[in-house]
Amino acid sequence: MPVDMVCTPMTTPTPHLTLDGWLDGPIEIIPAVDVLGTSAVRLHQGDYDAVVADAGDPIALAAAWANAGASRVHLVDLDGARSGRVRPEIVAAVATAIGGVKLQASGGIRSLADAASLLEAGADRVIVGTAAFPDPAPWVEALGDRLIVALDVRDGQVRTGGWLEGSGFAVADAVARCLDAGVVRVHCTAIDRDGTLAGPDLDLVASVAASGLAVLAAGGVSDPTDLETLANAGAEAAVVGRALLPH
Q1: Which pLDDT tens digit goes with each residue over 18-29?
Q2: Which one of 34, 57, 201, 226 is the catalytic residue?
Q3: 11 within some domain
Q4: Which of 33, 34, 218, 240 could form a disulfide with 76 if both were Cys (CB 3.0 to 4.6 A apart)?
């Protein structure tokens, strides 16, 4: 479908969802809502052709997480991530649906104007990956702590362009650039674990957290016990998708 199509509610009902067992963990849990077309989906290892879960209407899903007690929702526009075009209308619809719950948004941000459009639509933080390298400094200067830099990692290398392209930076190099630029917080995804329920990449999380960056860890989380191990590895929060859906 065209990436500029407005995301309208699907007819698929959202099942009753709960965060029981997750909210009392040692670190914050941030439910993920990944949007492909007009559906909330989970991909296997970032493969756009491998949808392993379809949760229907993303707006209803985000509202369900808010109603379940989430303090923040993580919204990803997968179409935007690979096309380089933001869809502020999705952000606005989700922000309205979740009321006072905070919203961090990503997907398609290639310019400061793109970031501003998502903040104006209702996000309180934006996640920037592709456009943050090689130099995150202009983003830090413009956005301050509203910026999260995405470190999407496969085989020790940071991926960009919806995880479809190489950035040319090893994790350590990307971390160093973030520190030099004054980045406070990163969203660190182990791509090979994402959508697999295979457990988080604790070595990756620990290596990034050891730098002093605040780490939102993603990829492979399977149950609430993973929150303890992620906390021990130094994560500030866990972004969780597939593990929260019926499976």
Answers
A1: 999 999 999 999
A2: 34
A3: no
A4: 34
Averaged pLDDT for residues 213-235:
97
- 169-188: string of b/e by CB count within 10 Å (b at 16+)? bebeebbebbeebebebbbb
- Is 34 marked active-site? yes
> What CATH number should be reported for the domain holding residue 170?
3.20.20.70
Tell me, yes or no, whether 163 lies in a domain: yes
Catalytic residue list contains 49: no
Amino acid at 49: D
Q: Which of 57, 77, 152, 226 is catalytic?
A: 152
- Number of domains present in the structure of the chain: 1
Domain of 130, in residue numbers: 28-244
pLDDT(3) > 50 = no
Residue 130 belongs to a domain: yes
